[in-house]
Amino acid sequence: MRDDRRRLRTVLLWASLAVLFIVVFQYVKRVGSEEEIPFSQLLSDARMVEGLEDGLPPLSGVRSFTVFGPEGRKILGQFSDGSSFVTEGDLAIAGDLRQQLLQKGVRITYAADGESVAVPPDAKPVPFSDFVQKLKKLPADADSGVYARSRVEEIEVRGQQIVARYKGGTVKKTAGDLSAFEPELLNLGVKIRHEAEQEGFWVQFLISWVPMIFLFLIFFFFIRQLQVGGGKAMSFGKSRHRLLAENSKKVTFADVAGIDEAKEELREIVDFLKDPKKYTRLGGRIPKGVLLMGPPGTGKTLLGRGVAGEAGVPFFLISGSDFVEMFVGVGASRVRDLFEQGKKNAPCIIFIDEIDAVGRHRGAGLGGGHDEREQTLNQLLVEMDGFESNDGVILVAATNRPDVLDPALLRPGRFDRRVVIPLPDLPGRLGILKVHSRNKPLSAEVDLETVARGTPGFSGADLENLCNEAALIAARRGRDSVARDDFDEAKDKVLMGTERRSMAQTAEEKRTTAYHEAGHALVARLLPNADPLYKVTIIPRGLALGLTQLLPEKDRYKYTRKWLLDTMAMLMGGRVAEELVFAEQTTGAGQDIQHATGIAHKMVTEWGMSNLGPIAFEHKGEEVFLGRDFVRQKAYSEAVGEKIDREVKRLVNDAYERCVDMLKTHREALDALAGALVERETLSREDVEKLLLDLGLSLPPQAGGSAARSEPPAAGTGPQGGSGSTPDPT
Length: 730
What we know:
By secondary structure, this protein is of the alpha/beta class. The chain is built from 23 helices and 20 strands. Strand 3 (74-79) and strand 4 (84-88) form a beta hairpin.
């Protein structure tokens, strides 16, 4: 970022200098090198007949004269034949004669007031009338063609601006109104050319140069867009990594909780970077690569940030998608540049987030492979373990799809160590809650261990979201600290979605939803192996019209056959309740039936929990884009397929019949539970148990269930056959 600002300042400086140069150039060009003269001098020069300076006689009988004396009435001059004369008279009576005399080359001089003029003795007195006649008379030998032209050859007029070009090539300029003198100048042979009035300097500058500057800026920003790697134009192949600054906010291992085993694996790498002799003295070497694997939200990227905060060495951060471009070969070039930068800063750590974006299986997918991605992966394989060693460069990568990675990328020598980051257990959830509640004031009634026990299956991201939602709810209520009921409401929001109380339902729809959810809740509480009931509601949440939420009380990592059978029976509770009470079926049970069928199908084909014996008839299918399961090959005959279908149907029907018997037996409890839901809309586990105990029912103890997914078991009424989320125990 600092380099980008420095480059931007440099570009702006050069752009400012360029604009300044253009302005100066335009001004000098506009001002030019012409001599500027007064308008009166231009007129005088234009009226001056060419050739007088070469000694040619004037076109008059008088060569020159001087006006002097009181009131300017005395005239002393010289005729064209060279004789002197003196006379007295008023020259003004001659009218425009003076202008004509000047045009004919007669030199007229006016003496200053009081100035004495010496009259030569040979000056002959003549009458004033003879003097005037001599002025108008042409010499007999005079050639008027010699004097027919002015000293000014051409005049260019632009409004009030005048540029005059003289016979010798000299150019002079002035300003004034020439319109009254144009006929006279035309008679003297001066060429007058009128041009459009020139715009002001800044107007001319904007018209001439702004388009060019605009095009330059477009070109500059286009080049900036091409600089995907920074540094210089067209640097497509430069790596887009970010070097974590030392003064940035650091995340340490103290900020990462719930994954102690994974932290120990990475702490060893950090210790090696700080004290390599501790390991090399026994012949050990640090792993070249560490792959962090786990479900979304478990803290893989956070753990990578923790490594950056603990290592004390350069930490390069990049995403897998930063390598992929539309141009073939760009990604490979970026990989080379990334490792070159790593070698220059060794020892260092390179962290690639979401490496599955570039490390997918080669030569797979519909229509063949992806040339750009495969070349990038090939270069990554070579850099990680090729002919050249990368000592001191440790690659840490994270993904939640390790199944799609290329086998060559996973072998030892590249990713020597694979760190699995699972969903946190109870101590892990408690540690995560403590980390995310450090900056939140909690009331004395909040017990984080109780919150941790009530959130099995939550990932680290879910728990962070839970703490944040609780703080937001407390702030919305105007509290100074986060209370226990804030956490309870936040958990309901995370588990079941936001309440949609504004959704209008008819009384009949509300009653149908109440019986549907009451059927789920009653069966779930009466079955000994089902997950404990957490809450049942008929308030629309998310996409569901109602929801029955089951919440395991402890962590378990496998499912028993009894749990699966009880879960299928619980899923049938909504459909059975609708049929018993209304003698009608609705689409609200569609997703419940789909989940129950999926569990039964896996019990028969994958887990060997049916009368067909412990045989796996199907394997987990691979994605089509990997090219591994485009045409599924059945490992059994058609006859066996029919048996599988019958066995799946039997398991689902048994769960249905079991649920029918249970709800028929406890019809009174079903009605009471549905009535309570219509009245109160939401019931907790304690509310349901108290209502059933008041009716005299004996409630069996429950095993506590399991939590192998981030979303606990739930069943509900959806708008069109949908329901709340139900676990897919795989």
